[in-house]
């Protein structure tokens, strides 16, 4: 079982990604999408537009967690100290655990459970696409 510690701390009431305790349990993730040549702009951005932009979009004045999900560069950079995604390394990509709803702290599930906009969790296929993109 491959896991890694990447985590969060609560700073002024806000959750901030940092190097501690988000474990990415690769064996529990859905399989990577079989699709070849997955790119951020073609495959990931449209999904994030639907599932994340309400809170992390380019037009949101104060994106949640200071995180914007609109460009590959912004997704790799993140909103805090830790990178949400490290190319080629699922275990160092807390975003993977967040969208797969694997984090110990349910506040980190993305999109959040019971969000007011009623944005549903990513489907298995969508999670598989995120996985394929990171890998
Ligand atoms: C309904 C609002 C909402 C939606 C939709 C949403 N998020 Fe979030 N997101 C949040 C909140 C709230 C936080 C925590 C911010 C805080 O407490 O400072 C957060 C934090 C994050 C962070 C951590 C940023 C950091 O570096 O601290 C990442 C990464 C993230 N979200 C990814 C996503 C992704 C990917 C999606 C879509 C699949 C998504 N979120 C959808 C509200 C949302």
Number of helical stretches of at least 4 residues: 5
Radius of gyration, whole Å: 14 Å
Q: Which bin fits the share of residues in helices?
A: 25-40%
The geometry reads as globular
Total number of beta strands: 2
Q: How far from one another are the termini? A: 17 Å
The assembly state of the depicted protein chains is single chain
Series of H and E elements: EEHHHHH
Q: Catalogue the unreliable spans.
A: 10-14
The main sheet comes to: 2 strands, antiparallel
Please indicate the percent range of residues in DSSP E strands (runs of 2 or more).
5-15%
* Total number of distinct structural domains: 1
Strand order of the largest sheet: 1-2
**Average pLDDT score:** 89
Structural class: alpha+beta
Hetero groups bound?
heme C
Blueprint (SSEs and pairs):
Elements lengths: L5 E6 L2 E9 L17 H12 L1 H4 L15 H6 L16 H6 L24 H11 L1
Antiparallel strand pairs: 1-2
The structure holds heme C.
The site of heme C (HEC) has 28 residues, from strand 2, helix 1, helix 2 and helix 4.
Task: Kindly describe this structure.
It is a single chain. The chain is an alpha+beta fold. It has one domain. 29% of the residues lie in helices and 11% in strands. The chain contains 5 helices and 2 strands. The chain has a two-stranded antiparallel sheet. It is globular and about 35 Å long. Bound molecules: heme C (HEC). The site of heme C (HEC) has 28 residues, from strand 2, helix 1, helix 2 and helix 4.
Characteristic terms for this protein:
29% helix, binds heme C, 135 residues, 5 helices, alpha+beta
């Amino acid at each position: 079982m491959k896991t890694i510690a990447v985590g969060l701390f609560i700073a002024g009431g806000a959750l901030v990604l940092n190097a501690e305790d988000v474990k990415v349990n690769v064996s529990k993730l859905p399989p990577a999408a079989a699709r070849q040549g997955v790119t951020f702009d073609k495959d990931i951005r449209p999904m994030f537009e639907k599932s994340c932009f309400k809170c992390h979009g380019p037009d949101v004045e104060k994106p949640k967690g200071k995180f914007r999900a609109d460009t590959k560069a912004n997704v790799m950079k993140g909103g805090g100290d830790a990178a949400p995604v490290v190319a080629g390394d699922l275990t160092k990509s807390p975003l993977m655990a967040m969208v797969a709803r694997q984090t110990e702290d349910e506040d980190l599930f993305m999109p959040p459970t019971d969000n007011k906009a009623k944005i549903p969790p990513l489907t298995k296929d969508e999670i598989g696409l995120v996985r394929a993109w990171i890998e």
